[in-house]
Amino acid sequence: GSSFPRLTNEQLDQTVAEARLFFDNQDIPRSHQFLDYYTDERLARILSALRYLTMPRAPQPDELARLDEILAAPDDLEALLPLLDYPGYAAKFYALWRIERLNCGDSRHMTDLTLDQISELLKLEPRKLPQAMQNCECVTVKKGQFPSPKQLKEAGVSL
Length: 159
Fold this sequence. Notes:
Elements: H1 9-17, H2 40-54, H3 62-72, H4 77-80, H5 89-103, H6 108-111, H7 114-124, H8 129-135, H9 139-142, H10 149-154
């Protein structure tokens, strides 16, 4: 599977800004069989989110609260960079979107495969990351902000 959704800049900006994009990457079945995705735990997470979105007094799931927090954070790298290490893929994705818009002026590196390729290297071939980061046109990557220092350390990469 792909790490980043395939959207245009406009689609990505609208869906993230309005908190309409969510990723549930917990407990992905190895076989990727469709029915295996719908465990009791995943269904409980989906129902909790739907309940919150349709019933104003329902408790807000932690995952959605984190997205709201990220979207409400100031346009300041010092405030946003630690959010790259929040739990959950959706939180990391939203934080990266905010950081990209500050560093590069828009979200093009999230839609043109630039950051997708860096993410894939982090997961599959971390030893290739230092060279890829050095040659990357993305300011967020060149500055060593993404992958975050914590993510690099967890992958066994030292710059």
